[in-house]
Each structure stands twice: as C-alpha cells, then as structure tokens.
Amino acid sequence: MTMVKKPFFYIANWKMNLHFHAAVSFCAENYEALLALAEQEGSYLILCPSYIAIEHVNNMFRDTTISIGAQNCSEHNQGAYTGEVSAQSLAEIGCRYVLVGHSERRNIYQETDDSVLQKIMRSLEHSLRPIICIGETQDEREKNLTYDALGRQLEAVCRLLATYPSSDISKSIFFAYEPVWAIGTGLVPTAEEVQQVCLWIKKTVQQYEIPFRAYVLYGGSVNGDTAPDLKKAEGVNGFLIGSASIDFQTLRKIVLS
Ligand code: PGA
User: What is the DSSP letter of 5?
Assistant: First the structure.
C-alpha cells in the first residue's frame, strides 16, 4: 500500500527584507526550482511578499501550485484609513492567505487581540485563509506562563471562529506557534517542546468545535540546520519561515530536509 504524505506547508514570510525588484528577481531566478519544490509530494509553498509585489508575484505563478499570501491586512472593510490595504483588495489581486497578528505587528504597531479578531473576520469575508500567529514572550516563558499566554490569545479567536456556520468546514485556518523569543534570534525550542505546544494548540482548538480545518505551524528561526529536527515534532503541519526564506538554497534545504 502506498502511503500518502501528509500535507506540510512552507510559508515564506519575506517581511520587508525583499524590496519589489528583489522579490521579483528571486522568483524569476529560481522559478523552475521553486516549482520543483512545490511539487514535492505533500509540500505546499506559499510566498508572502510585501503588498506591492503580491500581484506581480501572483501573476508569475498563475496556474502553478505556488500560492501567494499577504503579511497583513486592514481590520476595516473600506473607508478613510490612509495607508491601509483591505482584505478585499488582496483577494482581488489573487492573494489566498494572510498573516494575522504577527508578533512584529503586535509589538511594533501595537496590534491588539481585538484588531486580530477584526482582521480574521475581514479575511474570511473575502475567502482569504488567515494564518493566525500566537506565541509567548521570553518573560512569559521564564515565568512558566507559556500556556496562559497562548490560551489567552487563542480564546477570543476560537470563540469567534466557533460562531461561523458549519458549512465552512471545508475552509482552512492556520495557527502559527511563534515563540516571540525565537523569532530572528537563532534560538529555537526543542522538537519535544514544539510538539508539546502544537499538540496542545490542536487540542485546545478542537475543544471550541470550530467549523474549520485547523492546521498548526511552527515559526521562529527555522533554517537549514534547525528544520530537520523540528520536522520530527508530531502535530506540526508546516513552518512559517522568516529570514531563511529569502535565500533560495536555504529554503530548498528546509523543504527537502
Ligand atoms: P524568522 O522569522 O524565521 O526570521 O525567525 C519567523 C517569523 O517572523 O515569522
């Protein structure tokens, strides 16, 4: 009997690390190789360029298995919100995923749990799959408050998701466990710790009986060296990859690990 490989999602969060031309060159120079990675059995590759490059990158990968995501969206539908980008605009230009509540948004731009909820609602209204980022700080970890922090961030989100109609069951929602202390630091939890937390997130989400298929990702210093071990963690359905995703050879190493 042939075993079907479980899906594993690789979400490349380019942050503001690749400017427009660099993002387009990355895709052009590695075009065939990126397609080959996305064609690995069970592998799903999702590229999240900055807003300005989304449409261009999406056009490059039209009719391929590579999908495009945004790094953020507005919590509002429409109106006088200078500088914001709506979920509807993202959907109109071919975006299929959106990161919500990344710790850089929460810390640098003071995003609150409430704005995270609004953004989830906006993205679902426009059929974007939200990738909801949660994670504990170094201080919370040291005080053994990891599960309190995660539980707090999950509660309102799951309560909201539970209010959606059960016909939404075919839609996917992603929870990205990103310990704040592991993002961009080179520090990573052990595979056992990641497994424990990701299984806990799955169990917690299940308790709310949300009518969505929920996947749990890990993010924070995933690179060519840390990926093989982290991949062994049960309950992890993929990686959210920051700085390592802007180097094609490193991204390749992560996918093939
Ligand atoms: P990193 O970032 O891989 O550079 O640690 C991850 C993220 O912020 O999503």
Answer: P
**Strands (DSSP E) found in 27-149:** 43-48, 67-70, 97-100, 129-134
Cβ atoms of 232 and 191 closer than 8 Å: yes
Q: Are 122 and 87 in contact (CB under 8 A)?
A: yes
In angstroms, what is the C-alpha Rg of the chain?
17
3-state SS of 88-103 is HHHHHCCCCEEEECCH
For the segment 88-109, what is each residue's pLDDT rounded down to a tens digit?
A: 999 999 999 999 999 999 999 9
**Residue of minimum CA distance from atom 9 in ligand 1:** 242
Whether 241 is in the pocket of ligand 1, judged by its Cβ within 6 Å, is yes
Question: Catalytic site residue 178?
Answer: yes
- Number of residues that make up the chain: 257
pTM above 0.90, yes or no: yes
Beta bridge partners of 48: 13
147 CB-side CA count, 13 A:
11
Burial per residue of 74-102, b for 16 or more beta-carbon CB atoms within 10 angstroms, e otherwise: bbeeeeeeeeebbbbbbbeeebebbbbbb
Give the Cα separation of 68 and 139 in Å (integer): 34
Q: Which of 29, 125, 178, 234 is flagged as catalytic?
A: 178
Identify residue 51 by its one-letter amino acid code.
Answer: Y
